[in-house]
Fold this protein.
Amino acid sequence: MMQIDERNTYLTDIPLSEAQQQLHKALQDVNKSAALPAEVVPLRDALGRVTAAPVWAKRSAPHYHASAMDGYAVNAADTLEATETRPVQLTLNEQAVGVNTGAPLPPDANAVIMIEHVQHTDASTIEITAPVAPWHHVRMMGEDMVATELILPANHTIRPVDLGAMAGCGHHTVAVRRKPFVMLIPTGSELVTADTAPEPGQIIEYNSLVLSAQIESWGGKTHIAEIVPDEREKLIAAVEWAIDQQPDLVLMLSGSSAGSKDFTAGVIGNLGDLRVHGVAVRPGHPVIIGTAQQTPIIGVPGYPVSAALTGEIFIRPLIAQWLGQRKPTAPTVPAKMTRKQLSPTGDDDYVRVTVAKVGDNYLATPIGKGAGVITSLVRADGLAHIPRFSEGVNSGDEIRVQLYRDSGEIERAVLTMGSHDPMLDLLNQHLMDAYDIRLTSASVGSMGGLVALRRGEAHMAGSHLLDETTGDYNISYVQHHLKKQPAQVITFAHREQGLIVRKGNPAGIKSLDDLRRTSYVNRQRGAGTRVLLDYELKQRGIPTDEVGGYDHEEYTHMAVAAAVATGIADCGMGVRSAAIALNMDFVPVGWERYDFVIPEQHLQHPGVLAILELLNNDVFKHELMNYPGYDTKETGTIQYVHQP
Amino acid sequence: MMQIDERNTYLTDIPLSEAQQQLHKALQDVNKSAALPAEVVPLRDALGRVTAAPVWAKRSAPHYHASAMDGYAVNAADTLEATETRPVQLTLNEQAVGVNTGAPLPPDANAVIMIEHVQHTDASTIEITAPVAPWHHVRMMGEDMVATELILPANHTIRPVDLGAMAGCGHHTVAVRRKPFVMLIPTGSELVTADTAPEPGQIIEYNSLVLSAQIESWGGKTHIAEIVPDEREKLIAAVEWAIDQQPDLVLMLSGSSAGSKDFTAGVIGNLGDLRVHGVAVRPGHPVIIGTAQQTPIIGVPGYPVSAALTGEIFIRPLIAQWLGQRKPTAPTVPAKMTRKQLSPTGDDDYVRVTVAKVGDNYLATPIGKGAGVITSLVRADGLAHIPRFSEGVNSGDEIRVQLYRDSGEIERAVLTMGSHDPMLDLLNQHLMDAYDIRLTSASVGSMGGLVALRRGEAHMAGSHLLDETTGDYNISYVQHHLKKQPAQVITFAHREQGLIVRKGNPAGIKSLDDLRRTSYVNRQRGAGTRVLLDYELKQRGIPTDEVGGYDHEEYTHMAVAAAVATGIADCGMGVRSAAIALNMDFVPVGWERYDFVIPEQHLQHPGVLAILELLNNDVFKHELMNYPGYDTKETGTIQYVHQP
């Protein structure tokens, strides 16, 4: 661990646009702002490369007058008199020469008669009953390309058909932009490679994988250096070595520790010019820009979301510039925000969102996870840019979202909000396999799901709300919360709830009565599990303020299990599958019913229809039943039809 | 050349859907209908590959409670009493341990106080003035991923961030689908490789390049065999050798000659089962489907457009199926047809179209070139599928178009119709370089351009229509044809018209008076050059029926030049640059003015604005002036403002 005194504080963050100008100026200063020079590659290797110059036809195509049909090449003048009643005979191999499609016309021929329109009279003549116009069924020289004609402009990304056109007019190589070459140096004493088992305090280094793959997908090539610990001399040596490989760009990938972040700036300052240290963009603040020995260097923040967005915001335009392409523009779609998003006033805020199409609207929901959570990018459907000084957006505002997935995929997806169940993953996998439809879920608790339905912000809601008076589930809540919306309540599964405890049950917990003497981790208000706990506590006469940790709220079964696994609490209530997933023990409390609440207007959505099919599919039910803690006896059953 | 008697006639074409079913059945018969098995690759090589199984987290991330800030790890209980007026001191390295971001919390700590919120009192204690809540500024174990959680589903195409997520939860390899392996065998005695200079009758073989690149871009890998001539034994040997390489698919790429087409079917029938010979799809008819030695074989038609579309229609879904992906769906946009398109009733018709956005509408115009014209695919902005039995579409009908370009690129493009000038390529190149805007042009003659403007089907029109009575150009025509549309007439250039003749002027043509005794190639009715010719003939008292070849019409200067170059005619009228392009001689007739006619409503279109800037840009004008046969003395001048 670093000594406190060595720490630097960050320079002031500068606005994104200013940082981009600084980068532009840095490139000019080191003579790196133009497109890269050309290299000549065989057409076989040219797919996806970018033309460095216009490509002109060297040769016409066809390069001779070619028959466009199987038939006989003739001189049209010889055919003028032919009629049904007065056929004309043409001497074979003199007046009429058999030609296949693509064959050159003989010197005197200027038309082709299709084989179907000819009667053989004998071995030496053919007979025709209609005249043919000059150049009929002939592909004239240059029909496709005329020599000197422009085939492809410069700065064009080569597609498969372009290869054919170039080959067809006399090229077998093409001048393309050299690929921008980027050296990546992962830095940080806490970093270890992906093939090792990390100790506490060690972190798997994978930003190099992500950035290298980004750069290659944008048309660059990369080399990833070995991880360099936070030692000034080693860092300097690593950067000098990297520069010696003559890259177009060096990326220093900081670890997420403060040490890594600060050394990068120091090293660049030491070797060359430190130009930017901190950019007002979220996530991503500690971006560093500099140059050394005529080479641009970018310091990339260590948090994975910051790193990937630094790639998109700073590095992608650079690669495009070097390839002679225009600044990449990402197409966006309009979407309605489902939650308020507060952005720091001075920052350009890039918000990862899930996007679903419910009814006619795209709905965007901020994922709201920190820059350390790479799964937030994996699960994001898109990215919304909230510009500096806009002070965020309100729920219901329209924003523009750059989609990370095909819009068709998003339109087919089903959005379920409400209570979380680990087996939604299983449902999603079956849905993907059999229907190519994704299930998107947001864990907001059972009550939160019903509220989302009321607002038209989800296709369905997962719910396991116990009605204390009836002992039934969900129905009275639907009646109360969906006053004006017809809906159906359809069972997903019965599932076993209980107390998740560490392996071997070290606290010796036998029932909920033990909550008075142990530490507990709770679910949030509105969660079905919370309702169940409160009901059980009341039955037992245990006041909530006697339950230690009652105020510690988590949002999913898995988060509860993780909190117990790591010793934050002795136990927490959740489904058996969550305990099994983390290899923990489980003290059963009872079985409950988990239903989907589906508004009538979404019952015909193709994805909802597919889910209903799966709930009645024996293979799926069998697989679900086989998970301990699940019972499918009423899976697919319509429990209630709400017709307000 | 083949002997006529050996020719086979085609089997009857079967409908596309039936051919697809036959292919499906063929795959089942040879046990090739399932997704391919998995292979394990390092994450470094996994970008763009398709997961063969769900990827579950092996390890939680973080795998320990980590500090989320630079600061001091504390036990929250020790901080409860701290207030502004009664600060609390914590002993360094006992009650408060300095931690960097990412560092593990010491065993008893459960919160982190940011360094900014701490006052050093001395070397052994820190002072705080506010309490901290448990787990504040802590990234709890599993915050990103909990062990056993689903990270990626099966059949997912791996993106850069996915690599990071997999590495972060304990993977350094991933099981992906083996790449489908396709052997391509080009066949045809007339075919030669792209690096040779073809003789008449020889054709450059490039379909293998196009199909191989298509297959690789869809996720397969390929090997291209050497070209096999149309000899049954050699073809059989080639197919047997290809099957020995254990491919998932063999493609026999026929040449475009009848011989190549028929041998393929014979060879498949000889070695195995010929299942389909001819599909009712345009372009593409002679598609062949069969199997031999447990290997599917597809015979691909020789015409390049047919070959590329066979790739998209038949081979792309196959690759997707083997990768475990769903049938690829191409997003489409609605567009208004600008011309009638007649489709053969029994065929699925795939129509290459140019697409422009004029006003609020996407307009689609069929390119209307044969299956032999690969540049029609290169220049196409999209593809419209006109289903079997629909009998084509009328001008003004809405169709759906699968775009080949980014919709933003299409929306920025300028569509000019009307007269063709070879220097529009130069304008396009400047427009692309400086503005990233494409100029799309359609050659329909000057008059055709004005008609297109009247119908709202173009942003501007190129025109050089001489008014015999005034000697001026275009203005009276605009007055007559654009009755109700305000517009401006702005000069592109003056250019030299004349008679294009073969090198050395073998026919000894000195002036238009010589047209009585030579053969001529004309432009179509409505072309400015045709108007000019008719005017000049009238001046000279030459009746048009005394001009041999007056009825042979071509649509561009280049086509006229090509017709003369290949001896179809002795001369044709056109601009000097067309003669220069094909290295021909030129007999000057005179200078004329070529203008752009631009409706007022399009004058603010960003692409039109860019063109007007270029017409007044000295660099562009200088470059244009340097081409022989162009004069820029009035380039950019507004000749007329039409205010009806």
Remarks:
- The radius of gyration of chain A is 35 Å.
- Residues 1-11 of chain A have pLDDT under 50 and may be disordered.
- DSSP finds 16 helices and 36 strands in chain A.
- The first strand of chain A starts at residue 38 and ends at 42.
